[in-house]
Structures are given as C-alpha cells and as structure tokens.
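Sample 1 of the test manifest.
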Amino acid sequence: MGSLFRSEEMTLCQLFLQSEAAYACVSELGELGLVQFRDLNPDVNAFQRKFVNEVRRCDEMERKLRYLEKEIKKDNIPVTDTGENPEAPQPREMIDLEATFEKLENELREVNMNAESLKRNFLELTEVKHILRKTQVFFDEAAQGSLVSYPQMADPSREEEQVQLLGEEGMRAGGQAALKLGFVAGVILRERIPAFERMLWRACRGNVFLRQAEIETPLEDPTTGDEVYKSVFIIFFQGDQLKTRVRKICEGFRASLYPCRETPADRREMAMSVMTRIEDLNTVLGQTQDHRHRVLVAAAKNIKSWFIKVRKIKAIYHTLNLFNLDVTQKCLIAECWVPVLDMEAIQLALRRGTERSGSSVPPILNRMDTFEDPPTYNRTNKFTKAFQALVDAYGVANYREVNPAPYAIITFPFLFAVMFGDLGHGLIMFLFALYMVLKEKPLQAKKTDNEIWNIFFGGRYCLLLMGVFSMYTGIIYNDVFSISLNIFGSHWRNDYGKQLLMTHKDLTIDPKDSYLSTPYPVGLDPIWQIASNKIVFLNAFKMKVSIILGVAQMLFGVVLSLWNYRYFNKKLDIYLIFIPQVIFLCFLFLYMVILMFIKWVTYEANAMDDALKPTCAPSILITFINMVLFKPADKVAGCDPYMYGGQAGLQKLLVVVALLCVPWMLLAKPLYIMRNQKKAHLLLNNHVNAVEENGGAAHADLESGVQNAPAAQPPAHKPGSHEEEDPTELFIHSGIHTIEYVLGSVSHTASYLRLWALSLAHAQLSEVLWQMVMRLGLQAEGWLGGIMVFVMFAFWAVLTVSILVLMEGLSAFLHTLRLHWVEFQSKFYSGTGYNFSPFSFEVILDQAANSNDD
Amino acid sequence: MGASLIPVIIFTLLWGVVGIVLPFIVPKGPNRGIFQLVLILTASTCWLFWLCCYMAQMNPLIGPKLSNRTLLLMSRAWDGKVPT
C-alpha cells in the first residue's frame, strides 16, 4: 500500500531476552534500526542502573580516543576513513580495546611530557644564547663609543665596561665616587617592556639603567606551543638594595633571568657551551618527535573503526539500561514500539543475535495492547524525505493521520512555480538541481559543514521539481528572462492605417477587429509583453488564477479531512463538521470561481447582444461583495446587471444556506453529545438505583457509603471517549473551530492572492533588470558595443542569479511553505504526534560524528 | 471568438494521458500509490493552469496598447504590408 499516505501501523511489544543473549540481540537490533525502546525504569537515576559501570568504561575509552584524535589532528596526520562499519564487538573484547587504548594513551602522554621538558630546556638555552649575543652587542657598542669620546679613560679595569656603557652620565657619577655597578640580564615578553620599564623607573626612582634589544625570531612557548616574541634586557644598578628590588620586579613581570658572566672571555666560553648543548638537544628532540609521529600514524589507521566500536558498545549498554530485570535475574524485559510490517525482520535479527551469543533459549517477542498513542513513523526514501521534512517542520502527524507530504510533492513545487514562473530562471534552478541529483553519490561522500550547501543538497529533489514546474509556468506566462517567445505567432494584428499611425503615438488595438478570434494556443500571447497596458491585463488574469488555485487547494484539504474522519470512524464529525464545511466553502468561494469562468466565456468584444459587450462586464469582486451583503447589483446604462437569469435569487439562496452552516458547525456537535450524555446518565442512574435497591435488600446492615461505591465509578473510563467532557468546554471548543474555519475561509482565500502578488513582483523585477541593464549593453554600437555587451551581460547574469533566482526563489519558497502550512494543512491536519525514533547505530554514529565536527 | 478545437484537444489529451492513463500502467511496487498521485496531481494542476490562461484570453475585453512604431513593425513583419 502507499506507505506515505498514513504513518506505519505500530504496535507495542514486550521482549524477553536471556541475560547472556541480550547484548548480542540488542546489537543486531541496533544494526537493523527499527525498534524504539521505552524506558522501563524512569524513576531510577542514571547512576543506579545495572550497566552503569560498562557505560562509564565506554566513556573513559571514548575520552582516550578523543585525546588520541586531538593529538593526530595537531600533527596533521591524515585519518584513513575506509568507510567500513565494524560490528559491535563482544563484551569480552572490551578489555582488549581498553588495554590498547590505555597503552597508547600512556605512551603518548610520556612522549609529550618528555618533549615538553626538552622544549623548555631548549627554550632556556636559546634565551641564554640570545642574551649572550645581545649583551655582547651592548658592551661592544659602549666600548667603541667610549674609545672615541673618552680615549684617555680607556683603562683595562674590570668596571671599565660598565662605566663605558653608562656613557656620559655614568662618567659623571664615576667621577664622583668609585662606583661598583651590578647588573642582571634576562628575557621578557616584548609587549611587557613598556610597563616593565615604567615600573623599574618608579620603583627605583630612576636609579637603574635599562637597555633592551628585540629578539627577531619568535620563540615557541613549550606549554601552549604558541610562537611568542621576546626581548633581551640588561639592567644596571648600584647596591644590594636595588638589586633585590630589581629582581622582585623581574619576577613580577615573569621575566626569566639568566646568569651572565662579567668578563668577555667568560661570556665567550659560555656561549660556546650553550651552542653545543643546543645542538645535542635538537637531535634528541627530533628523535622524540619521530617516535610520537610513528605512534600517531599507527593509531590514525584504526581510530575511526575504534570510535565506531566504542560508540556501539556504549549505545548497547545505554539501551540495556532501559530494560527491566526479571525477578530471577535470568532474563531482561524490554518494551518497544515496532512497525507491524517489520515484525519478521525483527524476529530474524533476534534469532541471529541468539545464535551469535550461543544461547539456547530463543528470545520472546509479544504484542501488547495499549491505550497510549503510538509514535508516527513515515517510511521515506531519498526522494520523499525532503517533502516529509517540510511537513514535519510544522508538526509531526498524529498516529495514522492523513499525511500531507505526498500531496506536497506536487502542490508545493507547483505553487512555488506560480510565483516563480520564468522559463529561464526555472532552467537555472533545474540544471543546478539536476547536477546535484546526478552527482549524488560523490557529493554525498564529500561531507561538508557548509550549512547552506547541506540544505540545498538535502532538498535537491524538491529543487528539481520546483525547477521543472517553474519552466512549465514560465511557458504559460511566456516569460524567458522577461522576454516572450513568439512560437505560434501572435493572434493580434494591426488594423490601423498609415495616416492614423503617423498622427498618434500610442494606440490601443481594438479586440473587435484586430484579434484573430482564437487565443494563442499555449500561454499568454507574446503581444502583451510589449504592450504598455500589460499589467492591467496580467493582474486580472493572475488574480483570478490565484483564487481558482486557492479554492481548489482548500477544497482538497477539506476533502482530506473526510479521509481522517472515515479512518478514525468519526461518523458524527462527517455530518456535523465536514458537510457544513464543504457547503460553506462551495456556496461562497467555489461559486465565485464559477463566476470567473462564466465571465471569461460570456463577455466578448464583438457580441451581438449589447449587454454582453466588454463595458458591461461586471467586476467579480464587487459582485461577490454585493452578494454577501444582499445588495442588488450596480446598474450601468444599457447593461444587464446580472450575468445570467435568476442570479440574484440563486445568490441569496447560496448565502443563506452558507450562513446556516455556521450554527450547524457551531452547535450541532456539542448539543448532540450533551443529549447523549444525558441519556447515558439517565441509564446510569437507573442502573445505580436498581443496584441500591438490591443492595439495600440484601445487605441492610451495610453502610450507605459502601453501597454508593458503584456510582462513584462512572463506567465511561474508556480513554478517547468524550463523554466525560464538560459541556462548556465542548461549546468553547467547537466555537473556536467554527470561528477559525469561517474566518479562515475568507482570510485564506485572500491569502492566496500572494500567488498573484509575488508572480507580479518577480516578472516586474526581471523586466526592470533586462531593461535597465541588458538593454544598455545591446544598444551601444560598433566595437564599443561588443565590450558593453560583455560587461553588461556579466552584470546582468550575476544579478539574475543572485537576486532573481536566489532571493526571489527564497521568498517564493517561504510563501509556498506558508500556503501549505496555514492555508492547506489547517483544513485537516492536527500535527500533534511524536516521531518514531528507533534505536539505530546509523543515527547514533551520525550524531556523534556531527557533534564531533562542531 | 472563442476556443479553437485543436489546441484544446491536444492539451487536454496530453494531460489526460499523463493524469488518467499513465497511473494505470505504473509498475507495481511499494511506491506505486505515490507515483499515481504524483501523475494525477501534476496533470490536474498543469492542465488547470493552462486552461485558465487559455480561457482568460478567449474573449479579450481589452486590447494591448502599443506605440505606433511597434504597430508599424508588426504590420511589416507579420502581414508584409501596412493597411492604408
């Protein structure tokens, strides 16, 4: 049977699994993905369930795997994705897996730790290297400077250099007293230098001297791995007090201080030893990195399948936690929702699971009766999935309710196309969708995070149909990028002579003489495209078409509600809701549609009867308003105010009957139910009285409260029956529904005019674009014209795709969505069900993969 | 004025075949119902849309308003002569 018309028939089942076989069976069911388990211990919290230990172990394994994955990503090692889907391993294999991961993790951590300490060492040495190099530069500069300006002071004492370094000021100070200057050298982050300098100046009252030089190459921070820029500094000061102060400030600014020898010879020696140590460290570091790389490459080969295995095990234990333990502890009891059609497949999977686990007792699957609403399960394929998603976005259907999705497969693209109708734009959309459909497999394999692309790709079949229908409506509207095709030859001619044409600039062709008496066979006559009164004609046509399509779709929706009533066996609703609804809609709005067709057929330009001339054609809208207000039609001299004989009388009758439908919808059902309730109560009272009498006779000594017990339990405890409902609630309910329907019919009919509005906007926009852009390119002559066409075409093409196809397409899509959700589905769809969410490895793995990517 | 038989018959036949004949010869399978529904709905919506467009032009109440240059060109291109 057409599977999509209603959701699948579901049944609640009880499943008895032997403890040993449970794991294997659940694993098989997870591969199948057709069973939704119910939580049988909702009051037990997550930490007190049976398999909480196993779940925790899986979590731990997953954490280790994530750590591994992070390290692999850090080193840019490609992860091989073979696409294989390993089965969930046996529970005993879990220990092996755990051991493997444990070993890998420890190895990696050790390697990382080693590498970090080595790197720290390396950093320190490099910093020392830089200090030695830079300070040497300071000292050298100073020596040269002093040699030039104070040659007589060049005296080979030990303080010499420092004095030289301090320059003139130092000289002055040196002249006053025998100075012994101390100094510290270190390395600090470059951005901290200004604050550091200010702090030193303030804390030491200007009594220290700071020189600094930038280290050009960035250094790697071993803890974070970031590249940081640092500067070397050297501070001179006098006395121990200042020394402690300077040291404290350095500490506060996280500057690393290094010992620096005072004589040039010592410094040179130190530099040599530092260089050799750096060399050694480099080789060791390289070896460590090599080892780490080898470990990670080996892990990268398996990590995907490990992830799948661990996630499967975890999912199985999570599911087992939902089960109930039998008193004997020998078997697990599960309750699950199952599609009736798939019972066989599930039985088979269970048998496979039992065989795999080597258990001798087969699992038992029992169907159960329940009053609960089963979940809604619509079996979709890649084609119907997008349409089902559009419907589900509004609300999931109730169980076994008529599903609007199969109807939307055509009506959705069609209504979209009415708004988007243009052969050229439709073709662009069609080709784009066709590309996605043909390249489906490779595109699907290439998973991307691009949300917009994923939306387009998910709705590729919807887009394909939208494109095809837009091309069809484009042919009917005779629009190709706002240009008309004259395939069959226009059915209008020019009958004006030269004389007249010379004296008048604009002329209206009279349909009486210049029209070939039959219309252009397919779509609009191309002459309208170049007529200046095109909009007047198009508006009349498009508005009428909108209303015709709208009334047709709404009627269709109401008819679908009949299917619901019949399926759920609500005879009452057919007579008390469905019939008045149909009458109301037909007598008012379908009648208006019929008037439109009558107007198209009867009034013509060269009619024999004067009353049927174009000037006499009445406006349908005014006629309809007058009809509802019971006003006589407006009179025009020489015309018949009515379109056909007896119109006035028929219209009055139609309106009166339609209005009578309102109280019918409003009152009939609650009154009927109330009457039935009264009858039931009467019966019940009689029954209770009879019981009381009998009881009174039989057990005269009993308390009266005991005898009243049957009366306290109303027999109407069947769920789903409305006999317990409060009458006022019934009235409110039916009042809301009636008002919604009656006002809705009016406003929804008007709402379909958006078809006209959007299609007008689309046609006008594309025409403006053609005239303002493309025509400019076509008008220029000579070689300039070639360039102009080239430039203007590029401009026009970009705007066409971005504005007319993408933006207009989006807006038409949203309006179509609204028309389906509000105007169409409100007639029959309640959409308050919940989705069937089976236990399926595929879904779980997909979710895990997606959350991992984020 | 009015309809000309040939386009009406051709179009009605075309969509009639799609909407009425094809649904009977859809191959059996789990999606047969969907295929039938798709064909029927396609045919009825497309036919209705074409019909509305055709009927709206059957008896035009107004004529197109054109510039004299366009009218002259129309006469030359489609009739080969300008009426006097």
